[in-house]
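Hey, can you fold this one?
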Amino acid sequence: MGIPTFGYKDLNQSANALLNYYLFNDCAQRSVLLWIPCAIYWFCLPWELWRLLNQKRRDVPGPCKYRKIFQQRIIILICVILSICCYLGLDLSNNLIQQAPISWTFMSSFSFIALLVTLCSMVYVNVFLRRRAHCTSISLWLGLLALVACGFIECVRSIAVLIPNSSFDVPKMEIGERSLFFIYYVLIFVAFLVHSSSPGTMKDSAQNEDGEQPMWPEYMCSLPSRLYFTWFNGLMWQGFKRPIELNDMFRVSNDERAETINDYFAKCVEAEYSQRVKENK
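Sure. Predicted structure:
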């Protein structure tokens, strides 16, 4: 079995293309599934801020003034920018120490920050602004907490690598990873359906039939929420066809996968070399 040429005539270029293809193809697709909604979320954030500033006061449910909500978004945005700068500097220093090209650690850190800031925003709205939460909000909280906990462990493990002669070891989370993510997606799916069908989530109504204020309607009715809903459905279907593991979403490669790729790569090079030797004879 020869090495695919990938359009290259030189053997070394074909070999490099083959190695990059398997490194990218094995993890990048599912990493992109995690990355794309985070990028959509933050690209839509300025539009959300503009909408909150220009909406009428009657559209804001309960005693929450739109100025408070706007101040909350600005504070969150500043915190996110600072966090991204910190993680980017950490990632660059990590790669400088290891003398390796820029990895995808920053992508997983960015997605973790987005989830963490989302959770903090929900806590702020429901605790400090004294707004009621539905039972579906509790399920949404539990799902976010589970995913944030996984991301936090991965970030701690990546930071521990930078500490020289560090004996700190974080246990791997390999048991129940698929179940955890499946439960998370189901909770998000149910919460979105219930909030979308509830009269309290409509833009023109400040309260639902029971007089309770809907939980975070400015996000549940927004464009990013609709995009998230479509993305979660696609990701659940993709996970059904090929289950998603935590290491696949937060890590680009690991030692075991690298050994497998190197073994296959060595066999291909050996077969190609033997074939060319026979042709030259």
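Residues 159 and 204 are 47 Å apart (CA to CA). Let me know if you want another pass with a different chain boundary.
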